[in-house]
Specification:
Distance between the termini: 45 Å
Shape: elongated
Strand order of the largest sheet: 4-5-6-7
Order of helices and strands: EEEEEEEEEEEEEEEHHHHHEHHEH
Number of helices: 8
Structural class: alpha+beta
Number of strands: 17
């Protein structure tokens, strides 16, 4: 490894300790390093040369001059070498040590520090500190000359394609296309994610997220089970959001009608709503299912009754579900459920017979449920 200072020190790590392997002013401001055969290649920024150091004799030779800039990454390809300048230039160096600029991303504000070359996939992988993205470029040396430069690299995704972008595309187009959306709690969080993507103006065309939410809501908002229990309220958050973003009356009307159905859900004496219609039980995920909807209704209408209801549900569920003993395992966290009567309980979730104890509540700290409620 190198130390980027005027002393020109290169270190070797041996037996877990760093030691100076070579020190020479000819290596001042060295950054990138690459071992190739019996030589160590070094990008020397004091004179902008790529240099070769013999691993046996440690003799230093100049290979190629890259011009003004900060040399950073060095990679070997079947055609020679690739060397980057930090501010966004990529150069190819052939066997005759001739230099050609392959890529210039300065105008895109994409810094190019260390990068990787994947020979099998013929890809350049460029992490950019400036944009906090990873960019992929196809390495295509057979491309014809363009002007006086041979552009042998072109963007695989012009805006940068990360695994997050791939997951987003898969979610919208493969896993759950909007036309297949159903008014269920399982799908509601994904729809909620699409509203967040639009709010944060993610990607080159954020309108795709608004279009997704609109189509999903149009397809599902007349579901007969909408609003009958907390799970049937969860998608209402995106309905109310759509009403606020678009200003369209049909969405606002539907969102307000959903609230009237919500008010018919059975409640405990303390005001907490049952999670399922047939069972007098409180579950920690109820707070998410109804809470996001109530918050969006407040943002839509500016009516504080929705905030009051939201706070009521948080307080009453916390009263029954939070582990209050400071010495108990999971102190401060919430258990999965509390049973409000001595009747049969739902066995679809949590452990069997979870309510058969003096406290009538689950003894399990449900990690995902605490995520829902927080």
């Amino acid at each position: 490894m190198s130390e980027t200072d005027s002393a020109g020190r290169i270190y070797r790590i041996r037996n877990g300790l760093a030691e100076i392997w070579l020190q020479d002013t000819l290596l001042a401001l060295t950054n990138g390093l690459l071992v190739r055969g019996n030589a160590l290649l070094a990008g020397v920024n004091s004179d902008n040369f790529l240099k070769s150091i013999d691993l046996n004799t440690r003799a230093i030779h100049k290979l190629a001059h890259l011009g003004p800039g900060n040399i950073d990454g060095i990679q070997e390809t079947p055609d020679g070498l690739l060397v980057s300048h930090f501010l966004g230039n990529l150069y190819a160096i052939d066997a005759e040590h001739q230099v050609k600029e392959l890529l210039n991303t300065r105008t895109q504000d994409i810094f190019m520090a260390d990068f990787a070359f994947l020979p099998v996939q013929q890809l350049l992988v460029v992490p950019s500190l400036r944009t906090n993205k990873v960019y992929l470029y196809r390495y295509a040396p057979e491309m014809p000359n363009r002007g006086n430069q041979e552009k042998v690299a072109r963007p695989a995704q012009t805006t940068g394609h990360t695994w997050v972008d791939s997951l987003d595309d898969y979610a919208r187009n493969k896993f759950l296309p909007a036309k297949k959306y159903n008014w269920t709690w399982q799908q509601a969080p994904l729809l909620r994610a699409m509203t967040a993507q639009y709010e944060h103006q993610v990607g080159p065309d954020p309108a795709i997220y608004l279009a997704y939410v609109r189509r999903a809501i149009d397809k599902s908002m007349d579901a007969v089970w909408a609003g009958h229990n907390p799970n049937g309220v969860a998608s209402g958050a995106s309905l109310a959001w759509l009403a606020r973003i678009t200003g369209e009356a049909k969405y606002r009307t539907a969102a307000e009608q959903l609230y009237q159905k919500y008010l018919q859900i059975p409640r405990m004496p303390n005001g907490a709503i049952w999670h399922l219609k047939r069972f007098a039980e409180l579950w920690d995920d109820t707070v998410f299912m109804v809470g996001t909807y109530l918050l969006e209704m407040y943002l839509l209408t500016d009516d504080e009754k929705y905030l009051d209801e939201l706070l009521l549900q948080v307080q009453t569920h916390r009263e029954k579900l939070q582990v209050t003993d400071p010495n108990a395992a999971g102190a401060g966290l919430w258990v999965h459920g509390w049973d409000g009567d001595d009747k049969d309980h739902c066995r679809l979730c949590s452990q069997q017979h979870w309510d058969e104890n003096a406290a009538h509540r689950s003894t399990e700290i449900w990690g995902r449920g605490n995520g829902w409620s927080s």
